[in-house]
Design brief:
20 helices; alpha/beta; 5-stranded parallel β-sheet; single chain; 17 strands
Amino acid sequence: MANSPHGGVLKDLYIRDEPIQAQLQTEAETLPYVTLTERQLCDLELILNGGFSPLEGFLTEAEYTSVVETLRLPDGTLWAIPIYLDIARAELDKLNVSAGSRLTLRDPRDDRPLAILTVSDLYQPDRAIEAAKVYGANDQAHPAVHYLFHNTRDTFVGGKLQAVNAPQHYDYVAIRRTPSEVRALFKKLNWTRVVAFQTRNPMHRAHRELTVRAARMRHANVLIQPVVGLTKPGDIDHFTRVRVYQAIMPKYPNGMAQLSLLPLAMRMGGPREAVWHAIIRKNFGATHFIVGRDHAGPGKNSQGQDFYGPYEAQDLVLKYKDELDIEVVPFQMLTYLPDTDEYMPINEVPEGTKTLNISGTELRRRLKTGAPIPEWFSYPEVVRILREANPPRDKQGFTVFLTGLHASGKEAIARALQVALNQEGGRSVSLLLGETIRQELSSELGFTKRERDINVARIGFVASELTRAGAGCIAAPIAPYDEARQLVRQQVSKAGGFYLVHVATPLEFCIKNDQTGVYQ
């Protein structure tokens, strides 16, 4: 039998509101609306399907304050991470929103109405307190703290939700299951003891060994439930990771494991996040939950130290184990013993025994350079998928971004470079000249700072898409503002190489070569 939901009742709002779904759909089209952010979309989906039970909406001020300060909702129920809806005050004023208002929440991808929010209150949070209490420090090296200060809007809106439509997904539909669907699957398979495994990274042999050990020790089955919502900036994209998970599933003993995706927006909140993850897995019906070393840790703080201790997350989950009512499976890091060809928890390795390990940094280096990845570390099928998604530098797309004054000669350099690279072959190389972009993409723009930044951003978008496709791109705009150039660098660098070249031609030469009278 599946574990009971957190709070005793699975708050599946789709099932609850199904009898009035047509009525809600009609009403949603008549109400003022807000369009959700990507993180809000993830949170909403898990509120509506019961993954965040006992929540039935976004936290009110009293609920938010209680969770931040005490890890509990006002009624005493354990809840570790504040789930709120942030909206700009100017937008709320424009929509005339106040307590009692009803708002439609729309999907940012296709504008479909997903839910109706009945507003309970509007409030301004103390971000410094949230950062310190929830994430352990007001340090913007923490991705959730940086998001809190730079991405959340000024006003939080609390209130109950009614489900209108589920978000539409077109990827991996067969393994995107709600808590109700996962519980039905457990019943169909006659699974009564289930160990849930949380991951946001590709899985290798050590992960398979860890989960098999956990299942056999507890006489249980395994639910592999990777996060496919927002994870840590710089993580491998979820398409690649899911292909890896699908490749590794046949390596489990027949009938032992199932794969199901979780649309969670992680906060990388370490100990508190581990408690939150345990609650979520309990809502999905798991009876056991693996908490590993540095669970949901974000890495180093601004002083170069780890934000959390390696087993701090395990300690906090164990502190609340009776309330969580899900058995915690704490695991040490596994290491490979080449002499016996096996993996073993590092704390069980006899002194003097030879061990091998490949860190995440070393794995990325090997993928980047094409260096071999041994089969004791990962399966050939997994390595092939990772190499396809992370080609070595000489196989990646790239952008050369030339900038300088008008008539500095950057366009001539760009044309010559494009011709030379196309002559060499190996990949297509496109040319984005400032004058061409102005004519084809930005003809409505003038030359204020804002309009120049928009123009450069459009060039950056096109360049990043070409780079992502494995092509070369030579861009030669006038981009006088460093902030705009750095945004282009960030966008392109996610997909491949970025090379910024300043053509530092003296102004006197530019004036002399100006054929259009710009300097007159």
